[in-house]
Amino acid sequence: STTFERAEDGSYPSGYIYSRSNNPNRNSLENVLAKLENGAAAAAFSAGNAAGMTVFQSLEPGSHLICPDDMYHGLRNQLKQVFGKILEFDFIDLGDLDLVEKTIKPNTKLIWIETPSNPLLKITDIEAIVTLAKKVSVKTVCDNTFATPILQKPLDLGVDLVMHATTKYLGGHSDVLGGALIAREANEWWLKLKQIQEMGGAIPSPFDCYLTVRGIKTLPYRMKGHVENANQIAAFLEDHPQVERVFYPGLASHPQYKIARKQMLAGGGMLSFLIKGDAAKARAVVNKVKIFTQATSLGGVESLIEHRASVEGPDTKTPQNLIRVSVGLENAEDLIEDLANALKENSY
Predict the structure, then answer these.
(1) Which are the catalytic amino acids?
(2) Which residue range forms the structural domain that includes residue 170?
(3) Number of structural domains, the chain?
(4) Burial of 43 (C-beta count, 10 Å sphere; 0-12/13-18/19+)
(5) 63 and 117: one domain?
(6) 125 and 56 housed in the same domain
(7) Mean pLDDT over all residues of the chain?
(8) Do 85 and 179 reside in the same domain of the chain?
(9) What digits encode the pLDDT tens for the residues 115-125?
């Protein structure tokens, strides 16, 4: 329902007034999201981008943000195209802690963490960034979409706010859009975020909330399968002669492997790899697979593959020979055979 009946005295016995403000299904989703992340409160949105935009809208004009140099292109473009004349921002390597400290300005209000990052699977040391931020009273937000609260809990590491595109692993079936913010404390900033959620109206429908809660019920078991398959595929790709490099936090060869081991339970279900060749060869591989679906998005039960740079636009920093993979829950041997056939040199 979009509206709720009032009593004779004008009160609302159900506790709900109008569905944009709140409704039973959204309340159920926000409750489970807060508990998953060990947070004080949660807010559900119509998309991950809506959740991110709410954070940006909550900042005073002229505020400075520090963001990762390979920040998810949807939010990066949102900052540049929508908030370019309202906010200041720098995109830097958050793995360089000296650079992070030097980039902090008097008007810096927020450091945006994305770990693992999309699509280079960089790992940011969450506790180290939080320590730097707290010294100068700067807020921290962590996009936890890739790891999920099953594998990583940023709020426990001191982050102020966690963001999710619930469309991905939380929903888990590629059939419902959504986003979320979860706060470590229900403080004054949180009340402002909730106000923007309610007044802006970028909220999921009650049925979308139901679908996301349904997906969350199997999240731990799905993540177990995603991780098991991703480990096998990453190992296969790392040994393949046509592959230049594999980006997967679960591999000992990953540059931030020790940090990943410290703050994650496992490497997750996402990986990227560089083909030996150019963009044309990368496109040839993704066009050759039979079991993987060539599509954007991630986190569903089905395996997806794509030439990432062509999605991100002309200002992308993603290598042209990079292929991103969302490892699904199909038989791992079938997925490896599919990739092996697509990677055969004579198949380009």
Answers:
(1) 20, 72, 143, 168
(2) 24-216
(3) 2
(4) buried
(5) yes
(6) yes
(7) 96
(8) yes
(9) 999 999 999 99
Average pLDDT over residues 195-206: 96
Q: Is pLDDT of 55 > 80?
A: yes
Asked if pLDDT for residue 317 goes beyond 90, the answer is no
Closest CA to 142 of 133, 128, 154: 154
Among residues 216, 237, 260, the one where a domain terminates is 216
The average pLDDT across 182-198 equals 98
pLDDT digits (tens, 9 = 90+) for 223-281: 999 999 999 999 999 999 999 999 999 999 999 999 999 999 999 999 999 999 999 99
* pLDDT at res. 346: 55
**In this model, does residue 21 exceed pLDDT 70?**
yes
pLDDT confidence bin for 172, thresholds 50/70/90: very high
Whether residue 333 lies inside any domain: the answer is yes
> Does pLDDT of 348 surpass 60?
no
| Together in a domain, 135 and 255 | no
Quote the CA–CA distance of 299 and 70 in Å, as a whole number.
Answer: 19
Q: Looking at the structure, do residues 186 and 224 belong to the same domain, yes or no?
A: no
Q: Are residues 225 and 192 in the same domain?
A: no
212/119 same-domain check: yes
Nearest to 168 by CA among 300, 74, 71: 300
347 — pLDDT class (breaks 50, 70, 90): low
Nearest-CA neighbor of 156 among 33, 38, 32?
Answer: 38
